[in-house]
Design brief:
CATH architecture of the largest domain: Alpha Horseshoe
Number of helices: 12
Shape: elongated
Low-confidence stretches: 1-34
Order of helices and strands: HHHHHHHHHHHH
CATH topology of the largest domain: Serine Threonine Protein Phosphatase 5, Tetratricopeptide repeat
Oligomer: single chain
Radius of gyration: 20 Å
Distance between the termini: 67 Å
Structural class: mainly alpha
Strand content: under 5%
CATH class of the largest domain: Mainly Alpha
Helix content: 40-55%
Largest sheet: none
Length: about 200
Amino acid sequence: MQCSFTARRLVRTVAAAALAALLTASCAQHVYQPGTYSAATDTPRYTEDWFAAARAGRTDIVQALIDAHFPLETTTPEGYTALILSAYDNHPETLKALLSAGANACAADRHGNTALMGALFKGETHIAMTLLDTHCAIDQTNNAGETALSFAALFGRLDMIPVLVAHGADANHVDARGGTALQMAIAQHSPAAEDALRHAGATQ
């Protein structure tokens, strides 16, 4: 029997039981036996499926690969982890499975953007709330020196501004360009963002 273990086929057609069968018995070149997983030889076989499942919210597939000890911090060429992808694409159950398995919620892509920043960009505030319960530094910056609060102000997630400040975010954080979220809101003629920041304690 010829075995094709592509992400497209996996996400579209394989249920959890079928995946378990694939991992344990169906194809010789993809056999997984407990305790025999080799990062050097097995990880490349399942990497595409890992990321496709995270993007599609296939928690069953992600969990099966977690159980097979797939490396949680594997990244795409852009630096995305499965956790970042699940947060960005609004898959809370997949995100929770990854967090429960010990995936790093503080990991950043090649631009320094975190899962929390991605959730705020997309407006997935319930995902952002889940990520706020992790141990990550609230003022973790991306390559531009922006924080989660910067993202909330920039993309109009105004209800999250007081929440972030309550979690310790610096309302007067200065980014790599020397600007603050309040200055950005003023420059963009966004009185709602300006008011939200001032009410949260921004003064500069």
